[in-house]
């Protein structure tokens, strides 16, 4: 009888930031986590920004991450279904990962029923009101014209430009996220707006870089998966309920649907 009855969610590994040594150390941690779930995982959802930069040229991909990619191939070969979302840092994933270990690629949202629960999944970028500049950039970067133009650059130049851009990111600059209060959490507000149109048991996002568990009403919750530079946070769906968990870290996040994240983040910064 199979013990594969859990479904795992993680996001924002940002492999490649901020330098090779730290990225390799983080990659090793992620591989240990994947090893720890391989006996009971039925599915694995990686909800965007797995890589701090990714572009698939016709005959080349960015160097590195071989231990991580090899572990995903091992899990896939063991029968674990892997779904990968395109984030704002790795939106240029095309067919390579699907070909190598049968990963399902998701460009935007995914609505899915798992263990009797209706779940809305999205990396989280570009949702809700405001941020018009990024929404325009996202549309351009995802256009076939932009991808064709970037592919014309030699990989040394193209990846070099991307690394310079990456060093300007909030993670590269060691900016620690803080809980802004439920009314200021735009993904929670977006989830509430979605609930006016359709019921979901869970909204699961990445992108925010802060592990959060917010109860939206009596039957719906918003989960943010956090990131793996500070928190090593992920979620697991077991027997129809989603739990936030932390790998080799003390928990820094919301508990039982009540946010006490801000004070904990402040302690971590000190």
UniProtKB/TrEMBL annotation:
Pfam families: Metallophos (PF00149)
Keyword set, alphabetical order: Cell inner membrane, Cell membrane, Hydrolase, Manganese, Membrane, Metal-binding
Membrane-traversing stretches: none
Domain Calcineurin-like phosphoesterase: 6-210
Any one Gene Ontology molecular-function term assigned to this protein's record: hydrolase activity
EC top class, as a word: hydrolase
EC annotation from Swiss-Prot or TrEMBL: 3.6.1.54
InterPro entries: Calcineurin-like_PHP, LpxH-like, Metallo-depent_PP-like
Matches recorded under PANTHER family: UDP-2,3-DIACYLGLUCOSAMINE HYDROLASE, UDP-2,3-DIACYLGLUCOSAMINE HYDROLASE-RELATED
Listed name of the protein: UDP-2,3-diacylglucosamine diphosphatase
Origin species: Paradesertivirga mongoliensis
């Amino acid at each position: 009888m199979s013990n594969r009855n859990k479904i795992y969610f993680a996001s924002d590994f940002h492999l490649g930031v901020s330098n090779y040594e730290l990225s390799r150390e983080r990659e090793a941690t992620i591989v240990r986590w994947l090893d720890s779930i391989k006996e009971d995982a039925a599915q694995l959802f990686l909800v965007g920004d797995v890589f701090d930069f990714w572009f698939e040229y016709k005959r080349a991909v960015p160097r590195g991450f071989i231990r991580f990619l090899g572990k995903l191939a091992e899990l896939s070969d063991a029968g674990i279904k892997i779904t990968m979302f395109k984030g704002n840092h790795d939106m240029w994933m095309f067919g390579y990962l699907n070909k190598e270990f049968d990963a399902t690629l998701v460009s935007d949202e995914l609505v899915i029923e798992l263990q009797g629960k209706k779940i809305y999944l999205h990396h989280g970028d570009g949702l809700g009101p405001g941020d018009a500049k990024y929404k325009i950039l996202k549309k351009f970067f995802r256009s076939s014209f932009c991808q064709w133009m970037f592919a014309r650059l030699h990989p040394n130049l193209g990846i070099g430009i991307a690394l310079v851009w990456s060093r300007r990111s909030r993670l590269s600059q060691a900016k620690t996220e803080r809980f802004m209060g439920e009314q200021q959490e735009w993904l929670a507000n977006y989830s509430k707006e979605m609930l006016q149109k359709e019921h979901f048991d869970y909204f699961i996002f990445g992108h925010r870089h802060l592990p959060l568990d917010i109860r939206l009403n009596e039957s719906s919750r918003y989960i943010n998966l956090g990131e793996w530079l500070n928190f090593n946070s992920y979620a697991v769906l077991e027997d129809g309920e989603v739990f936030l968990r932390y790998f080799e870290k003390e928990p820094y996040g919301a508990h039982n649907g009540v946010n006490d994240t801000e004070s904990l983040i402040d302690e971590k910064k000190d």
